[in-house]
UniProtKB/TrEMBL annotation:
Gene3D superfamilies: Farnesyl Diphosphate Synthase
Family: Belongs to the FPP/GGPP synthase family.
Keyword Transferase belongs to the record: yes
Residue stretches in coiled coil: none
InterPro entries from the UniProt entry: Isoprenoid_synthase_dom_sf, Polyprenyl_synt, Polyprenyl_synt_CS
Protein's name in the database: Geranylgeranyl diphosphate synthase type I
GO molecular function per UniProt: metal ion binding; prenyltransferase activity
Superkingdom of this protein's organism: Bacteria
Protein keywords: Magnesium, Metal-binding, Transferase
Species assigned in the record: Ilumatobacter fluminis
Length: 353
């Protein structure tokens, strides 16, 4: 049964979204006043950041902050949550270009919007290159705005922030290479899964929140936060992989079987390949093909089920979540953050979007 978002997640999201609006609205107005051509690119940042998203990273950052002794109403952690959302937007703008994705959260992707504008206006050059170039630059702007929100953070927090951004980009490099090389090794697929998403979604937001609250307390909690955050981050991305292969487009905002069409090196597909018969492997070899049809996607989905890969991954998600909750139970923190982190873990593995 799908999980309902914890009430605290919704409250944290409201605060973070208000802060994002405070930051982005005057910036849009400032640059549009300089040159009207900047209005649409700047508006794209606001559109992506404020029209969807689960706000999980701000929530984990918030409870890491509270766990280390920070006050729940401290604006410092709201700024950090907003920084995470802008940094995530940077990754999405670029990821959509790399994947040549047509939609994001049920709306056209930014590079598609600007490629179509180029076509409509009859401008010189190649529409695709123009759209991708604008989207990359918009992502870079979001990256800079995320940094601005962490101005004044202590040295420990800055070290974590820089490391998580390196990890994110390393994960994206591995993901791109894994896609073109057809990586189907389970261990390698899980490493990509952890670095491209899991770490910067759960472990590092917890770390950053705790470090912002009290660097010395963070040092005491770091190992325990990782023991909770790493396996839960794996489970989070594995759930994403299930939705990427089987999710309903009306719920996910992405095409059905998108990860299969793109040939993503996911732990789900790696498990299917490892367990496949010769006949089943021939079906799975169509994954990622440029001419993959809807029928091919459906056949690949059924084969993944038939090999037992889906059931195996679901079992792995449960096992890693149990490991995370066991680590959380052993962590020396107050009852409130423990209770809220437990609720977030349940939501992360049972969500459908």
């Amino acid at each position: 049964m799908p999980a309902t978002a914890p009430d605290s997640l919704l409250r944290i999201a409201e605060r973070v979204e208000a802060r994002l609006d405070d930051v982005l609205t005057p910036e849009l107005e400032r640059w549009a006043a300089l040159d009207a051509d900047l209005a649409e690119p700047m508006a794209e940042i606001r559109r992506l950041v404020l029209t969807g998203g689960k706000r999980l990273r701000p929530a984990f950052c918030h409870w890491g902050f509270v766990a280390a002794g920070g006050a729940a109403d401290d604006p410092t952690v709201v700024d950090a949550g907003a920084a995470f959302e802008l940094m995530h937007a940077f990754a999405l703008f670029h990821d959509d270009v790399m994947d040549d994705a047509a939609s994001r959260r049920g709306q056209p992707t930014t590079h598609t919007v600007f490629a179509e504008l180029h076509d409509a206006e009859g401008w010189s050059g190649e529409s695709r290159r123009f759209g991708e170039g604008i989207a990359i630059l918009i992502g870079d702007l979001a990256f800079v705005y995320s940094d601005r929100l962490l101005h004044g953070a202590n040295a420990t927090a800055w070290g974590i922030w820089n490391e998580l951004r390196i990890e994110l980009n390393v994960g994206q490099v591995l993901d791109v290479l894994g896609s073109v090389r057809g990586v189907r090794d389970v261990a390698q697929a899980e490493r990509i899964c952890r670095y491209k998403s899991g770490k910067y979604t759960i472990e590092r937001p917890l770390h950053l929140g705790a470090a912002l609250a009290d660097p010395r307390r963070f040092a005491e909690l770091e190992a325990g936060l990782s023991a909770y955050g790493l396996p839960l981050g794996d489970a989070f991305q594995m759930r994403d992989d299930v939705m990427g292969a089987f999710g309903d487009e009306t719920a996910t905002g992405k095409p059905v079987g998108g990860d299969l069409r793109e040939g993503k090196p996911t732990p789900l597909l790696a498990r299917a390949i490892a367990a496949a018969t010769t006949e089943q492997r021939s079906v799975l070899e169509q994954v990622g093909a440029a001419d993959m049809t809807d029928a091919d996607v459906a056949a690949a989905q059924q084969t993944i089920v038939d090999t037992g890969a889906l059931a195996d991954l679901e079992s792995t998600i449960e096992q890693r979540t149990e490991a995370a909750l066991a680590a959380l139970a052993a962590l020396d923190i107050d009852d409130e953050p423990r209770r809220e982190l437990t609720a977030l873990a349940d939501f992360v593995i049972r969500r459908e979007i």
